[in-house]
Amino acid sequence: MGNPRGALLVAGTTSDAGKSIVTAGICRWLARQGVRVAPYKAQNMSLNSFVTSDGAEIGRAQAMQARAAGIEPTADMNPILLKPGSDRRSQVVVLGRPLADVDAMEYYEVKDRLREIALASLARLRDDYDIVVCEGAGSPTEINLRRGDIANMGLARDAGLPVIVVGDIDRGGVFAALHGTVALLDAADQALISGFVINKFRGAPELLAPGLDMIRAATGRAVYGVLPWLDGLWLDVEDSLALESRPASAGLAPYGRQTLRVAVVRLPRISNFTDLDALAGEPGVLVRFVTSPAELDDADLVVLPGSKATLADLAWLRRTGLAGAVADRAARGRPVLGVCGGYQMLTRSIHDTVESPDSPDPVDGLGLLPATVVFKPDKTLGRPVGEAYGRRVAAYEIRHGVVTLDDGAEPFLDGCRAGAVWGTTWHGALENDDFRRAFLSDVAAVAGRDFTPAPGTDFAAERERRLDALGDLVEHHLDTEALLRLITEGTPQGLPVLPPAGMLIH
């Protein structure tokens, strides 16, 4: 392939259209050709994040894309991360460090500064790598947000990036979505939309072919390929929308023994639910996301995952009756695991004036673990290493909460254990194979379930296999020669302008 240079923006007709996996697939395909490639997302709104080796917080999807490219993730790959704490306010993380909590209007006041930071990050990546594959955010035709856009067409215009648009055919209406995405942009933006990729296709190709011809004729733009539906590509997603289509378990298989049932409480502000990917990939383990007390009845393990709004989600637990159901389980010796925010909910009290500035007084937790929590303005970001069940555990942590254990509490991975209740501040601990199997064996014994984890399960290898599957999708189903020309030569000249361009945006 030589030494190509260039960049590309992968946009989408909607959130969860497949931008993240297409970006990762292109990165893996290029890396397998010997190209030095890096991912990039100027602005990401996600509660699934990761900590780089130097302690920077970035979107989990960009860390996954960096793995696909065979490189270490850095803050430049996601210079701006928005972490919603409510419907109106988000924490703004800039180059891996929290800047402020702002509402939508306050955010627009700093957009020019953030645009400069984002463009500087992209410039550094383009200097350091042969190709940079950029991922857009949401849709480029969120016309009410176009003026301040720094992640989609605003970025493409500033950096001169050719753009492909990914459409999700499984949702229906893909041709209208592709055509409308182009038509609602002004002429200068349209000039950068070079073509389309149709994602999640399952059906007869010959029935789709006439539609491809018609969208080419209607827009004057190429279709770079059709990616088939492929089960089991749910690792490291960034958007909670993906939970709607996620299978109950990817690893469930008949092994001649009882299935271990795991119920994960789907909190309103759930964060880092990717912690459960390794459990869902374990043969014989059934993982379900639940929202009602009745769904806990047959669970061997209940997990309270991370949260960006610990007190608000704790109040939701109480309103729904889930808090009482979890407490009842613990009283009967049924296993419960809390991770980060979920761990904090299990303690005796939580004092949070950082994420919940309207709550000046301590709030009672569920009282299932002998500890108290105080939130601090400085965020703890790190990649800790420890030990549990005699096994090495490498993880990462992202938190404002500082937990103090009562005297005599039994430590557990920077957290504690009391009977059948475990809590830890660490994310990613379950990705450690030996620890995961030991923990599940303990859970099964406490729950009285006849379950033994399958020996030899390798989560890291499974992740690599799925990244290879993404690279295979790109290699076998996209016109890679045309795609590489687009990346290296830029947007074709003379693309037609579709009406009603310019009527809505000025």
What's the SSE blueprint?
Elements: E1 6-12, H1 19-32, E2 37-40, E3 43-45, E4 49-51, E5 57-59, H2 60-69, E6 80-84, E7 89-94, E8 97-103, H3 104-109, H4 111-128, E9 131-135, H5 153-159, E10 163-168, H6 174-183, H7 187-190, E11 193-201, H8 205-219, E12 222-228, H9 242-245, E13 260-265, E14 270-271, H10 277-280, E15 285-290, E16 301-304, E17 306-307, H11 310-320, H12 322-331, E18 336-339, H13 341-345, E19 349-351, E20 363-364, E21 371-382, E22 385-388, E23 391-394, E24 397-405, E25 410-412, E26 415-418, E27 421-424, H14 433-447, H15 459-477, H16 480-489
Parallel strand pairs: 1-9, 1-10, 2-9, 3-6, 10-11, 11-12, 13-15, 13-16, 16-18, 18-27, 19-21
Antiparallel strand pairs: 4-5, 6-7, 7-8, 14-17, 19-20, 21-24, 22-23, 25-26, 26-27
Helix pairs in contact: 1-2, 1-15, 6-8
Protein name: Cobyric acid synthase
Keywords: Cobalamin biosynthesis, Glutamine amidotransferase
Organism: Sinosporangium album
